[in-house]
Amino acid sequence: MPFEADLAHALDRTTDSLDPDLTALLGGAVERGRSRRRRRRAAVVTGIGAGVGACVVIAAAAGLVIPGGLPGSRSAGSDIEPVALAMPRSAITGDQMVQALEMTLPGGRFSQVTGQSNNPSDPSGGYVANGELIVDDGQGPAMVGVSAVRLKLPLGDGDGLSCERTPGRAKGDTCTLSELPSSAAVPGGAVVMTEQNAAEHPVRADTARRWTVTVTLRSTGAQLQLVEWNSTGGGSGADTPKATRTAPPLSEQQVVAALTGPAWAPILGAVG
Fold first, then answer.
1. What confidence score (pLDDT) does residue 129 get?
2. How many C-beta neighbours within 10 Å does residue 44 have?
């Protein structure tokens, strides 16, 4: 997929040592990218996407332990402990992920749509489900990717759970944590991690940016991560697409509301 349903969500989450060409990966599968910042989702998602299958296979071969680093980027020598995934409770298809993602972005025109299924009955098939597409809502095209995975309980300080556990951020990049109280939609409450990163530093007026929101249910470990770019892809250096708009399609509040709303409830239930 395009950007961070980013192989970032797969390569980034699958292995710190990989430094994929996110832009190229886009044509293949899904996002969390080249910036190596998509912690732990052995499949692809949110931003660049492609190489999902390969990432999943790598994660499975490694015992399904994936480094936490979707939105943030992590160097090969990082001392951050990898985060182990748990088996999803039931299968989720790539079509389901894409459908839920399109429901999250009503009124937009979609292109370069891709999805990746998980397969609880076959570890080599992947523990991560992904969806990615480019949406044009009249404000300029943007790449959006999402991944669904289940973390092992009890939750620790892994991917999507601690800003201190993410790699160092460049000036202007941000990471914040918040809590959602227990409710019918979020039983047991949830941890919400939000990040914003520039695709290159120093940042220029036309530099693309990535916004990442990760919602993790405390009771089950089910985790959804949605990544938005204000460009049609992700990458670095000469491969970095230029910004096509100022802001992402959805605000942080809109993303959190969507990921804890009816469109994603079946997926959260299937994962956790």
1. 96
2. 49
Residue 35: closest CA among 176, 156, 162, 208:
208
Q: Determine the Cα–Cα distance for residues 28 and 120; give it in Å rounded to an integer.
A: 22
b/e map 63-86, b = 16+ CB within 10 Å = ebebbbbbbbbbeeebebebbebb
Global pTM value: 0.74
User: Which of 187-216 are b and which e, b meaning 16 or more Cβ less than 10 Å from the residue's Cβ?
Assistant: eeebbbbbbbbbbbeeeeeebbbbbbbbbb
**DSSP result, 198-249:** ESSSS--TTB-EEEEEEEEETTT-EEEEEEEESSS----GGGPPBPSSSS-S
Query: What spatial distance separates the first Cα and last Cα of the chain, rounded to whole Å?
Result: 25
Report which of 175, 176, 170 is spatially closest to residue 236, judged by C-alpha positions.
Answer: 170
- Summary mean pLDDT of the chain: 75
CA distance 38 to 229: 14
Evaluate the CA torsion angle 240, 243, 247, 249 in order and state its sign. Answer: negative
